[in-house]
Amino acid sequence: MCSRRSTSCRWLPARGFTLIELILVMALLTIAVSMTAPMLSRFFRGRTLESEARRLLALTRHGQSRAASEGLPMDLWVNADKGEFGLKAEPSYENDDPKQVEFQVDPGLRIEVENRVVNVSTNSYNRSRLASIASVPRTLLAQPGLPTIRFLPDGSLGEDSPQLLRLAARDGSSLWLKQSRNRLNYEIKSNPED
Length: 194
Prior knowledge:
- This protein has a single domain (49-189), classed as 3-Layer(bab) Sandwich (minor pseudopilin epsh fold).
- It is built from two helices and eight strands, in the order αββββαββββ.
- The chain has helices at residues 19-70, 130-133, and strands spanning 74-79, 84-89, 101-104, 109-114, 148-151, 164-169, 174-179, 186-189.
- A hairpin with a 6-residue loop joins β7 (174-179) and β8 (186-189).
């Protein structure tokens, strides 16, 4: 064991890095970062697309469970032009839904509705259709004129609900929310034909 008082050990002066060594290390780090940056950006864009699809899928499940638990139809509306979507109870006894939620799509993504079925509120009064209006159930939508996924209190989807929603990134990659084969819920798909 060496100590300061011992004469058998020779103390060497502390050696640091030279300026050239530091410059070489910095150059190697710069090269490594410049080579991995494009791959990392693609990775994070892919994660954004996937997380947005999962958020939309979670909202469909929340709307379905909320419709069943509260006994009211729930509307998941999509405004593709503004990049917004949200969930709101059907306006029935109260026009305001304290549990309604609205989301903005990530700025690098866009949402599109395929198989677009636009629901039009049937509560307008038309004298020429007075006899047939009594047999049609009245539908009040949270956002009339926008594509709407409608969750009914029995857990099923409304007949006019869109079959496909597409989330697309700027680089052309996309994920799809597609109605399942049994038409009871939605699933995330990487190919709409699956």
